[in-house]
Amino acid sequence: MTLLFVSAVDDAEDWARELAAHRPDIRFRVWPDVGDPAAVRYALAWRPPVEALAGLPNLQAIFSLGAGIDGLADVPEALPPGVPVVRMVEEGLSSGMAEYVAWQVLDWHRGGPLYRAQQQAGEWRRRRSKLASERRVGILGLGVLGQSAARMLRGLGFPVAGWSRTPKAVDGVDCRHGSEGLRAMVPASDILVNLLPLTPQTEGLIDAGLLAALPQGAVLINAARGRHVVEADLLAALDRGHLAGASLDVFASEPLAADHPFWRHPKITLTPHVAALTLPRTAAPAVVAQIARIERGEAPLHVVDASRGY
Ligand code: NDP
Ligand code: OXD
Questions:
Q1: What percent of the chain is predicted at pLDDT more than 70?
Q2: What is the pLDDT of residue 73?
Q3: N or C terminus: which one in the chain shows less Cβ crowding within 10 Å?
């Protein structure tokens, strides 16, 4: 049985080694070296070329190399009909994202950007800081990663609210859903964290209206997808002083163009789409567990629902 690896950006050697450690019987092939097309049962893919997954008569599942499925959804013509697409859910991604969100929330909460600027200027000035319990964090998206971040922030003492499409109950989190829930949560978020999937419903959600509804001096942390944010609206909200800052890990176009105003904006902290990386060491056991489910005749977990778009 063969697993076909199709990605120009992920490390095939790492994946081959980690998968072999758990399932030495799985033949690992890297596209375009497909071998016998009839032997290919699984694909592990990110942005596959249109022809990569065609002509594989026994393909049973396509595992996304990312938690987001835009790397597959953006190339629908490459996905053979009827084959389930499975999102990546694995410990490395969940804890990586919780760490990134906690890092950024704490940095803004404790005045990191201000003290770095003071250090540059050689200025000794002590500022009063709030307690974590006085800084409200709202999370857009209460899925696998949103809940992981929420747990970490609760552990640090922040009051946390979260927003999802359907109703949820998460211990210690003020759970909201639907448009009413969004209207209630945003004005009560001193720090707003975006962990939504990119769908037609969520694209451009973070626009001038939503940003204006945040409290004066709020901060935006976007670790989901760049196209959730209307970039010009974000710049305007920062420049007129309504927002104190933004941490951005993802951008409408990546890599970010060298002349993009985000690079040198004094109120923006920028990272190059590294909030959470799929790590072969922790992700390979997750893929192997999904394959074992399929082999037992069970449906894999975290299958993308095409009608919802995530
Ligand atoms: P999940 O599918 O587990 O969670 C998505 C959450 O968003 C769910 O709570 C869902 O609601 C909610 N949601 C979806 N659509 C809507 C909507 N229209 N209105 C309100 N809520 C909505 O995804 P993950 O948590 O695993 O991943 C989230 C995203 O994080 C990924 O799609 C990807 O874009 C991004 N990501 C970024 C990384 C980085 O390094 N920057 C790394 C990994 C992921 P419900 O619970 O009701 O279904
Ligand atoms: C992902 C990502 O979706 O890295 O996994 O953004």
A1: 100
A2: 87
A3: N
Query: Which residues surround ligand 2 with Cβ inside 6 Å?
Result: 66-68, 88, 278
Q: How far is the CA of 141 from the centre of ligand 1 (A)?
A: 5
Residue 74 has what pLDDT? 86
Full-prediction pTM beyond 0.90? yes
From the CA of 46, the nearest ligand is 2
Flag whether 263 is in a domain: yes
Residues 225, 227, 228, 302: which is the catalytic one? 225
Distance of CA 199 to the CA centre of its chain: 13
In the structure, which protein residues have their CB atom closer than 6 angstroms to any atom of ligand 1? 67-68, 93, 141-146, 163-166, 168, 195-199, 201-202, 223-225, 249-250, 273, 275-276, 310
Look at the chain and report how many structural domains it folds into. 2
Say which ligand is closest to the CA of 273.
Answer: 1
Q: Is the pLDDT of residue 308 over 90?
A: yes
Band (174; pLDDT cuts 50, 70, 90): very high
Domain presence at residue 151: yes
Pairing of strands 173-177, 160-164: parallel
Q: 181 and 282 share a domain?
A: no
User: Catalytic annotation on 225?
Assistant: yes
- Does the pLDDT at position 190 exceed 90? yes
Average pLDDT, the chain: 97
Bridge partners (DSSP) listed for residue 194: 140, 222
> Residues 33, 115: one domain?
no
What tokens appear for 224 in the block?
């989901």
Instruction: Compute the average pLDDT of residues 213-224.
Output: 98
For residue 22, what are the domain limits?
A: 2-90+278-295
Asked if the structure places residue 258 within a domain, the reply is yes
Q: Does residue 309 lie in a domain region?
A: no
Chain centroid to Cα 6, Å, comes to 21
pLDDT level of residue 296 (50, 70, 90 thresholds): very high
